[in-house]
Amino acid sequence: MSQLPSPKFYSSEEVQQILNLAIVRSSVQPELSRDQLLEIAMDLGMGIDVVQKAEQDWLNLQLVHQKKQDFNLYRRTKLKNRAVRYLIINMFLLSANLMSAGYLAWLFYLSLFWGLTIALEFWKTLQTKGEDYERDFLHWKLKKQMKQSLFSIWNKINFIQ
Predict the structure, then answer these.
(1) Backbone angles phi and psi of 75, in degrees to 5
(2) What is the pLDDT of residues 25-46, one digit of tens each?
(3) How far apart are CA 152 and CA 122, in angstroms?
(4) CA 153 to chain centre
(5) Same domain for 89 and 120?
(6) Are 66 and 60 in contact (CB under 8 A)?
(7) Is residue 73 scored above 70 in pLDDT?
(8) What is the spatial distance between Cα 69 and Cα 71, in angstroms, rounded to a whole number?
(9) Which residue in 104, 111, 113, 67 sits closest to 90, CA to CA?
């Protein structure tokens, strides 16, 4: 197998890919300390302030990622609760309908339309990208922040008394 000649220059993305492969293949520990990160950046000619800004951006992205995971868990839990409630109520209505009429009359239509809303919510819960998802996420995040603020104010009022 012939080797390609090494280019004189690499793009930033190529440098990142090569360094990632080198770290994975090296016998050096795969985790680096923050000081090691800053040292590598200085060796590459980057200013510490640039690396600290990039680190802060990365931390912010990790926080948003964690909040989105929390939001997805919230949506799945909410959907599961609605589906269980749907099943329990429909089993009760099925029993009542069979006991009163002896056959499925009105229950079929009610279950069908209610089941359609559950199916649409299921589809919406599976969607984790797009404008609707981002809008719902921001709405959930704002609602959660408002609850935390009100809880904090309530605690301060109770502490003063």
Answers:
(1) -65, -40
(2) 766 566 778 887 788 788 878 8
(3) 34
(4) 28
(5) yes
(6) no
(7) yes
(8) 5
(9) 111
